[in-house]
Amino acid sequence: MFTKSFLKKIKEQLLQEKEILSGKSIYRADIDTDGDDTDEVQGNMLIELESQLNYRNNQKINKINDALEKIEDKTYGLCQECEEEIPEKRLFHNPYFVICVSCAEERETEIKQRKRF
Ligand SMILES: [Zn+2]
C-alpha cells in the first residue's frame, strides 16, 4: 500500500504537469498562410508540427487524467499486467507508469523479438 503522503505528492506532481501541458496545447503558432506559396508551405509545415505537438501533449494529458482517476479509485501504482505494486521510486520518476519494471522489460523483449522476425 502506498502512503497518503506519497499519493498526495504524486497527485500534486500530476496536476502541475497537466497545467503546464494544457497551457502549451492552448498555444497556437501565429502563422500567416495568406502570403505567397513558400510562406504557405512553411506555414502548413509549422501547423503540422504544432498539431503533432498538441497531439502528444493531449496524449500525455490523457495519461495524467488516467493516473489521477486511479488515485481516486485507489488502484494507482498497480501494474496493469501483473497487478504488482510499482515501486514508489519509479512512480516518482514517471508518475504515469502503468506497468512494473519486469513487465516493461518483458514487453520490450517481446517488441525486439517481433522486430527481428
Ligand atoms: Zn507487472
Search tags:
single chain; 117 residues; mainly alpha; binds zinc ion
**Helix-strand topology string:** HHHH
Strand content: under 5%
Mean pLDDT, nearest integer?
A: 86
Q: Number of DSSP helices? A: 4
Task: Please give the alpha-carbon distance between the first and last residues.
Answer: 41 Å
**What is the molecular shape?**
flat
Indicate the radius of gyration in whole angstroms.
Answer: 19 Å
Sheet bearing the most strands, described? Answer: none
Which structural class matches the secondary elements? mainly alpha
Give your account of this protein's structure.
The structure is a single chain. The protein has 117 residues and is mainly alpha-helical. It has four helices and no strands. It has helices at 4-26, 37-73, 88-93, 101-116. α1 (4-26) runs antiparallel to α2 (37-73). The longest helix has 37 residues, at 37-73. The model has no long low-confidence stretch (mean pLDDT 86). Bound molecules: zinc ion. Zinc ion is lined by residues 79, 81-82, 84, 99-100, 102-103.
